[in-house]
Please model this.
Amino acid sequence: MVLVVALSLGVTTLALLQSLVVPALGRIEDQLGISPSAAGWVLTANLLAAAVLTPVLGRLGDLRGERPVILAILAVVSLGTLLAIVTESLPLLLVARVLQGASYGLFPLSISVLRRELPKTRLSVAMAVVSSTLAVGGVVGLVATGLLTGDDGDYRHAFWVGLAVTLASLALSAWLLPHSPGTASGRIDWWGAAVLGLGLVLLLLPLSQGPTWGWASPGTIGCLAGSVVVLAGWVVLQRRTAQPLVRPSMLTDRRTVVPNLAGLMTGIALFASFLAVLQHVQSPPEITGYGFGATVLESAVVYLLPGGIAGIVVAPFAGRLVGRFGALPTLMAGAAMGVVGFGMLAGLRAEPWQVIVAGLLTQLSVTIAYASLPALVVQAVHEDETGVANAVNSIARAVGQALGSTVAVTLIAATLDPGTGLPRAIAVTLVALVGAVASAVVVAVAVLGLRSGPGRRQGPPADVEETTAGAGEWSPVSGLR
Model:
């Protein structure tokens, strides 16, 4: 239990540092005297660093053992967060955000620790609890920013929370993480890591900066085209490398394609939920004709916090559902809940309680999806590939979050009322529909996975196929040693 707590705190650090700057971007613009496009790099730098570092860190954990890599990540993130607190320079703040990007490696490494240390009977619940903190931690970050910065506070105050959580995680991890050797042999494919990082940077740059650059600009089109070429070249390189960073067949195996596609769509749904709720409740009704005129603090505490609290409560039950019925049915049920929640946001949001319920459903949908995805990944790969396989899934979720944020911002900007300069009500509807479509795709992916027949029972290659003790039925963590 204490091991799960330690790992959950580390993953909370990742989600917290990712989300706490979102509502503070306006304050960063004002305090540093920079433009909105420059402030957007505070998010982009973190995301680009994560794309480059996550697969390497996952592979390092497989090769050298998770404990030293996790401790090193937390130390680097602590330094980055301290730099974010003390600096008054945008370039140094971007350096801080790059250092914080290493935190994305905590999740795949945490799943590797759980797979190695826990018996099969406890693995589903443990992975669900740790994974759910990705969604819950995001809400905590938004609430912390609302509490500490309000509408005119110093944006650096929120980073103090991030530093405290990171240092607590570092201390707890140093105390509790087991000393275990790596499960994989060989070396790191540095060329493969460099090419993959370049391809992901070229993909994520236009996704995050597209609204500023313009979707038809040479920079956007050039980066997207370049990402296609580089990532295709990376696949060819991996096929010709004796010890690749990512086994090529892992990328096309149905058992990994399903969770990666579901992770991409769930990432879209996560930010569609946050931005749709925040846009609606913060809109002044006397000007826009909709919304509740909520402050940043009210938005976070009243409309987002209930979903975060519910996620903490639901995560262990979601893990038990995964162990009892399988990850795909659990994933499908959670995504269906998301379709309902986004449907409410799209057409039933006149009263505060309606928005609270809708936000609760959409956040629980993400929590349940995140509880299901690690089980699907673990089922599909060898133990010595757990870190890098979950790193790939983490990248898929990160790309989805960037895409969801960009699409939402683009839709909101496209619906501005010339008279008020504020978005029309249709903006919230469109963002909610994006989330509904993303959730519906997750349902479809889960259904296709369930219909694929006996392949559902396959464990990872060379693993022993067993059912979870005491369950008597197939489980997504069957076949683990």
In short: The mean pLDDT is 86. The two ends are 20 Å apart (CA to CA).
